[in-house]
Amino acid sequence: MLHSTVFVKLSSGLYLVTQEGIIDGYHSTSPFLVTIPLYNSENGWIYDVEALPKVEEVVSGITPTTPPTTTKPQPTDPPATTEVDSTGEDKDELIQTGQLNWPVPVLAGLGLALFAYGWATLFLKKKEDQ
């Protein structure tokens, strides 16, 4: 069963289409927008626009079942764990993730050296200009 509505001689614009009332056997449709005229890259402007909302037919005879109520378990403290290496001794170092630590101080030192070089060059240039 297809229901349709036709509007004749609408002016150009953007229209909001909403549903009033519910059709038996169908879900209500969500509001949607329709642009008149509609632009098509192959055919240019199209003034005969056909807009179809997304509707679902209600399946009759099937009643939804309610899921059983569940109880949430009480939170408990997790057991304390200690890492032990293959020799059986406790580990006090962090695991290796592939991150290298040596570039950080090297790059920081190079940055500080370049900053100092820039300041020294600036002050020497000012002294030469005076």
At a glance:
Helices cover 21% and strands 12% of the residues. It is α+β, with helices and mostly antiparallel strands.
Write a structural description.
- The structure is a single chain.
- By secondary structure, the protein is of the alpha+beta class.
- The protein has one helix at residues 103-129; strands spanning 13-17, 32-36, 38-40, 44-46.
- The protein has 2 domains: 1-61, no CATH class; 100-130.
- The strands form 2 sheets. The protein has a two-stranded antiparallel ribbon with strand order 1-2. Strands 3-4 form a two-stranded antiparallel ribbon.
- A hairpin with a 3-residue loop joins strand 3 and strand 4 (44-46).
Write down the overall mean pLDDT: 79
Structural class: alpha+beta
Shape: flat
Low-confidence stretches: none
Task: Please summarize the sheet with the most strands.
Answer: 2 strands, antiparallel
Strand order of the largest sheet: 1-2
Residue fraction in strands: 5-15%
Rg computed from alpha carbons, rounded to a whole number of angstroms: 37 Å
The tally of strands reads: 4
The number of distinct structural domains comes to 2
Q: Kindly state the percentage of residues in helix.
A: 10-25%
* Alpha plus pi helix count: 1
Distance between the termini: 94 Å
N to C succession of SSEs: EEEEH
Key traits:
two-stranded antiparallel sheet; two-stranded antiparallel ribbon; 21% helix; alpha+beta; flat; 12% strand
